[in-house]
Each structure stands twice: as structure tokens, then as C-alpha cells.
């Protein structure tokens, strides 16, 4: 079985710093205690899930199934709808939230013997809630979306730089996102737009630090460029603008801009008529391959370079979702959840937790072309774990044995 940790020694060092969960001991000794403490958090959600089994290459197997107490465990895999084969180290990393179902499958550290990745992902909130006691996201979040006086918060509220900092901090920490109008001048936006054009001109398909999609004509379009400082010193210098640090600091103390690691300064570019690739992102979180205890709290500050609306492309959030574990969602599955689509103007700033569920649906206009310049902020622990020039997701973007790059739609 492929082991990405041997290719990335710094990732292996992270794993070694977390508790090792023996496969058999976890199921027979640790898990029953976790169910006793936290099973009530998952009982209702798990009741609709088919059974899943985890199996090691040596043949050890345990089946998880819903029970009135939350989850019950039996030996073997015969009754499971989904069967996941993974070694003991990968299972331990999964329990420690260092690798997700998506990350384990895409790096070939886990194999789906039966069932689907989607079914495994449905079980992930159960695993997470049992192990750390954080509840699963549901419409019950609505009762928590209140201001400091106990009144309901508007999903689409925006602020100005002159509004009270305490109000903005509370909104961001409660909702998981923040919209501040008129932070940057028209001159600053014009300068950054020109520098983004330079970045787009310098990017080529196959560059592992850019993402490419296809439109219906078969044309490759650059939809994301990481480490824009490669092409523009101005964009690199802008990472240290004190306004970015000020608003990122509303989320948590000791936040520092990730100008030399993770994605560095990154631009996201919306195009119309994207039919393949990652130009339109479904509901996701930014630690979707794993690494939550390494990267979170992770903050994305988005400098809005163009109008954002349904026609030109916009970002959507599930309010308060950063405070919960989440199941995977497709567009249209939001049901009674509090969802907002932000409408912004050039010069506005958006701030959101990377663990807030967010999405960028297709723009409706054939002339769409929205661009957003993002700067990530993280705490010192992230800088201690992740070296300069690296990202926790690096294993996913390596060229495989067939020469395919995961960042190009033509390789899918």
C-alpha cells in the first residue's frame, strides 16, 4: 500500500507527535468509553447510516453500526455495506484527524474493498464527534446564531471599518465568516488587478501551483494560482498589510500570515461554462484531506477585486459550521441549514475560518470573471509543523506514476 509519509518526512514527524492508536486496543478499550461519553452526540445522525467496517492488511476487522447509545462495535466485516482496508498507522492518523477519508483514498493509504468513498465520508462526523466531543452540524445551529444581546444575527450582515471591533469579532466567531465593506481603495484594487493579470500570464498548465479547468469548448482555464509572489513582489508585500492582520486577528490570538507556506498569496478566478475541474467548488472545508489539529484555526482573508454576485460568481457559507463536524453536502442538500451567498464589491474584504463549510457555485453570466486574492493566517503551531514552501496537502498534488497532475482537469 502506498505510503505518502515516507515521501514527506515532515508529515511523518507530525504523525509521530500524536498518540498512537492501536487498531485492536482502540476498538476494544478506547471506543466503548468514548461512546459512553459522547454517543448521545451521534445517535440520531448515525441511525440513518449503513454499517461500515475497518480492516487491516493482517485481517483484523471491526464493524461500526448505529445503536441507541450512538454506535456499537462487533468483530468482522461480513455485515458491513462499506469496507475500508488501511494499516494501523493510517487508522491512527484518521482517529487523530491527521488524514481524512478523502486524503487516505487519494494518497492510496486506504482502499475501499466494498462500498464507496461517499459512504465512508458520511461516517466521518461520527468518528470525529466521538473522539473529541464536538457535535455534528444540523439545523439546531440556528439557536446559537445570536448577537451579544441574544438577538438573532442576520446571515448577510456586513460591516464597515468604523463599526465596533467587538461586534465584528463576535460575528466572525459565531458565524464563521465576516464581510467588511470598503477596506481597500480603488487605486489599491486597480494595482492588484494588474498584478493578477501578470500572474495569469505567467501560469502554465501542469504547474503544480496552479489549478486548471476545462470549458465546454475544451479550452484550459486557470482557476487558481498559488504563491502569486512568484510573479508579483507587490502581491507578496501586500501579505503584510496591517489591515489583513487586524481582521484575521479577530478570529483568534497570535495569527500570522502564511506568506511562505500553505498556498502563499493565492488568487481564485471564476470563469463561466466550466465543465471539468475545480473552477466551481462544491461544499467543502479547507482541511478536507486532514490536518485539522495542525492547521486550525486557519483564517482566509479575501481581497475582493471584482463584483461578487450570482451572475459573476460568489462564495456561499453555512453559518456557524466551523463550530461543528460536518457531513459532505452537494448543492441542493442544504435543506433547513442557514446558508448565505455573499454579495461584495471591489475593495471589500471577506474573512472566514477554513473550517467553515463554503462553496463557490457556477456564475450565471456568460461574461463572468470574478477574482479574489486570498491570504491565509494561522497560529505559530502551523509554522512549527509545516515548513516553508510546503502545504499539508502536498501529497495530493504530486505527479502520479502515469504523469498525471491532480491540478489539471485534463488528467481527471
Task: Identify the notable features of this structure and list them briefly.
about 400 residues, alpha+beta, Nonspecific Lipid-transfer Protein, Chain A, Jelly Rolls, nine-stranded antiparallel β-sheet, five-stranded mixed β-sheet, 18 strands, about 25% helix, disordered N terminus, disordered C terminus
Brief overview:
This protein has about 400 residues and is of the alpha+beta class. It has twelve helices and 18 strands.
Description:
- There is one protein chain.
- The chain is α+β, with helices and mostly antiparallel strands and 412 residues long.
- It has 12 helices and 18 strands.
- The protein folds into 2 domains: 4-132, Nonspecific Lipid-transfer Protein, Chain A, CATH 3.30.1050.10; 139-411, Jelly Rolls.
- It is globular, with a radius of gyration of 22 Å.
Layout of helices and strands, plus pairs?
Elements: H1 9-16, H2 23-38, H3 43-46, E1 52-55, E2 61-67, E3 70-75, E4 82-86, H4 88-95, H5 101-106, E5 110-114, H6 117-132, H7 165-175, E6 177-180, H8 186-202, E7 210-215, E8 220-225, H9 233-238, H10 242-248, E9 256-257, E10 266-269, E11 274-276, E12 281-284, H11 292-295, E13 299-304, E14 316-318, E15 339-341, E16 349-353, E17 358-360, E18 371-378, H12 380-385
Parallel strand pairs: 1-4
Antiparallel strand pairs: 1-2, 2-3, 4-5, 6-16, 7-8, 7-11, 8-10, 9-18, 10-18, 12-17, 13-16, 13-18, 14-15, 14-17
Amino acid at each position: 500500500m502506498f505510503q505518502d509519509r515516507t515521501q514527506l518526512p515532515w508529515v511523518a514527524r507530525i504523525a509521530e507527535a500524536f498518540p498512537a492508536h492501536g487498531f485492536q486496543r482502540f476498538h476494544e478499550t478506547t471506543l466503548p468509553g468514548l461512546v459512553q461519553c459522547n454517543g448521545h452526540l451521534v445517535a440520531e445522525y448515525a441511525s440513518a447510516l449503513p454499517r461500515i467496517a475497518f480492516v487491516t492488511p493482517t485481517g483484523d476487522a471491526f464493524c461500526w453500526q448505529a445503536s441507541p447509545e450512538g454506535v456499537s462495535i462487533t468483530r468482522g466485516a461480513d455485515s458491513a455495506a462499506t469496507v475500508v482496508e488501511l494499516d494501523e498507522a493510517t487508522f491512527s492518523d484518521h482517529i487523530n484527524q491527521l488524514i481524512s477519508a478523502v486524503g487516505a483514498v487519494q494518497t492510496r493509504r486506504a482502499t475501499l474493498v466494498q462500498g464507496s468513498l461517499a459512504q465512508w465520508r458520511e461516517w466521518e462526523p461520527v468518528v470525529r464527534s466521538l473522539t473529541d466531543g464536538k457535535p455534528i452540524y444540523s439545523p439546531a445551529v440556528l439557536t446559537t446564531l445570536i448577537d451579544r444581546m441574544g438577538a438573532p444575527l442576520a446571515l448577510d450582515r456586513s460591516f464597515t471599518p468604523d463599526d465596533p471591533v467587538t461586534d465584528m469579532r463576535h460575528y466572525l466567531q459565531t458565524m464563521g465568516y465576516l464581510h467588511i465593506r470598503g477596506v481597500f481603495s480603488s487605486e489599491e484594487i486597480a494595482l492588484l488587478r494588474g498584478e493578477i493579470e501578470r500572474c495569469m500570464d505567467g501560469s502554465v498548465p501542469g504547474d503544480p501551483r496552479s489549478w486548471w479547468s476545462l470549458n465546454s469548448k475544451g479550452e484550459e482555464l486557470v482557476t487558481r494560482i498559488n504563491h502569486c509572489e512568484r510573479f508579483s513582489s507587490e502581491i507578496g508585500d501586500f501579505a503584510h498589510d496591517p489591515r489583513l492582520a487586524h481582521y484575521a486577528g479577530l478570529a483568534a490570538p497570535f495569527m500570522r500570515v502564511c506568506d511562505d507556506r500553505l498556498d502563499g498569496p493565492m488568487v481564485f478566478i471564476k470563469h463561466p461554462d466550466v465543465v471539468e475541474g475545480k473552477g466551481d467548488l462544491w461544499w467543502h472545508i479547507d482541511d478536507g484531506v486532514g490536518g485539522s489539529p495542525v492547521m486550525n484555526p486557519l483564517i482566509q482573508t479575501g481581497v475582493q477585486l471584482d463584483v461578487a454576485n450570482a451572475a459573476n460568481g460568489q462564495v456561499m457559507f453555512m453559518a456557524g459550521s466551523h463550530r461543528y463536524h460536518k457531513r459532505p453536502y452537494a448543492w441542493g442538500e442544504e435543506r433547513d441549514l442557514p446558508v448565505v451567498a455573499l454579495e461584495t464589491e471591489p475593495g471589500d474584504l471577506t474573512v472566514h475560518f477554513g473550517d467553515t463549510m463554503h462553496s463557490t457555485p457556477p456564475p450565471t453570466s456568460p461574461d463572468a470573471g470574478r477574482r479574489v486574492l486570498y491570504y491565509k493566517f494561522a497560529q505559530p503551531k502551523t509554522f512549527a509543523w509545516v515548513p516553508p514552501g510546503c502545504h499539508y496537502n502536498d501529497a495530493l498534488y504530486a505527479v502520479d506514476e502515469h504523469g498525471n497532475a491532480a491540478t489539471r482537469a485534463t488528467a481527471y
